[in-house]
Amino acid sequence: MKIAIDIDDTLNIIERARYAIAYLEKEGLPFRVVDPFANAFVRVCDWKEEDVIRFIRAGGAAAFIEALPRAGAQRTLCRWKEAGHTIVILTARLVSWFGDPYAISYEWLTRHGFPFDELVADCEEKGKYCKEHQIDVLIDDNLTHYRSAKEHGVTPVLAVCRATEAFRGEFEYVGDDWNGIAACVAKIAEKKGERA
Fold first, then answer.
1. What is the C-alpha to C-alpha distance for residues 102 and 120, in angstroms, rounded to an integer?
2. By C-alpha distance, which of 34, 109, 37, 120 is closest to 77?
3. 39 within 8 A of 55, measured Cβ to Cβ
4. Closest CA to 46 of 64, 29, 27
5. What are phi and psi of 89, to 5 degrees?
6. CB contact at 8 A, 10 and 69
7. 3-state DSSP of 5-66
8. Which DSSP symbol is given to 144?
């Protein structure tokens, strides 16, 4: 199978509120935290996208660079790679935010020993990308990408994070952790007559 996997809050855990609060305090900015568990920096505080871009460029990218892998993620991808599956890392990290999202993504993945066949950054429409590139499964924490994959005929697996806990009952394939995600992918593979 060809499996696409998101990075942020899927392979790793981003502590957005901690980094945002430190930045706001350091810069003496008037913004306030509105959703400490949001899975997008733009929704953590009452700021606009241009404020987030300034934050990222002023050192906020450290939140992505220093993020720790989710338990079991690297081991699961190694198992899938050994089983012959194609692993595509598919991130919506944008050029407009990071300058070179490929470079920081590649560095993080290799530093933590994640195997992959392809890395695609700056991908805002993951469902469409997956369909166009014959990807069987998309694993992502973002509800928009989950729904887009489903609409494009790609089987999505929701990687539950704090921002999406309340939605876990709405979807067919949901993993609270990487054991759960692996179990979902195994069920999908079985339906396709393959092994995961």
1. 7
2. 109
3. no
4. 29
5. -90, 120
6. no
7. ECCCCCCEECCHHHHHHHHHHHHCCCCCECCCCCCCHHHHECCCHHHHHHHHHHHHCHHHHC
8. H
The Cα 20–Cα 52 span in angstroms is 9
Q: Can you give the residue ranges of every domain in the chain?
A: 2-13+68-191, 16-65
Give the Cβ contact number of residue 147 at 10 Å.
14
Q: Does domain 2-13+68-191 have CATH number 1.10.340.30?
A: no
| Ordered per-residue pLDDT tens for the chain, 196 residues | 999 999 999 999 999 999 999 999 999 999 999 999 998 899 999 999 999 999 999 999 999 999 999 999 999 999 999 999 999 999 999 998 889 999 999 999 999 999 999 999 999 999 999 999 999 999 999 999 999 999 999 999 999 998 898 888 889 999 999 999 999 999 999 998 887 7
| Residues paired with 89 in a beta bridge | 5, 119
Sign of torsion over alpha carbons 145, 120, 87, 37: negative
Burial degree of 95 (CB within 10 A; 0-12, 13-18, 19+): exposed
The enclosing H or E element of 140 equals strand 137-140
CA distance 162 to 167: 10
Read off the amino acid at residue 177. D
